[in-house]
Write a structure and sequence with these properties.
Helices cover 54% and strands 0% of the residues. By secondary structure, the protein is an all-alpha fold. It is globular, with a radius of gyration of 18 Å.
Length: 111
């Protein structure tokens, strides 16, 4: 057994969660009569391909994006997750904090 075994299991589980979440988004979107293009515009995405990626589990969704998604789909947060007993604690993901850029962390000196 390789050391990657547990890592690969976690990646696969997360992928299944993304697929299921994406299917749920598609179901809600279609039931509301919203096209991928319209949803992309409502969410501020440049291309409908971003929505296709979400619905296929290829584009990650972050927790801070959920409120805009709920508003655009005119649904409740619980609608996105379906059966609450199956709600994942690992997906959607929390964003990793971005390290401050070098220029901002040093500040500017006045001359």
């Amino acid at each position: 057994e390789t050391r990657l075994g547990p890592f690969l299991m976690n990646v696969n589980e997360n992928y299944r969660e993304r697929i299921n979440f994406g299917k749920r988004i598609r179901e809600i979107r279609v039931s509301r009569g919203i096209t991928q293009t319209e949803l992309a515009r409502l969410l501020g995405f440049a291309h409908a391909g971003s929505i296709s990626g979400i619905e296929r589990g290829r584009r990650l969704v972050y927790r801070d994006e959920l409120p805009a998604l709920v508003e655009a789909l005119r649904c409740e947060m619980d609608d996105l997750f379906g059966d609450l007993s199956c709600r994942s604690t690992t997906y959607p993901l929390e964003r990793s904090p971005s390290p401050p850029s070098e220029g901002m962390s040093r500040g500017r000196s006045s001359r």
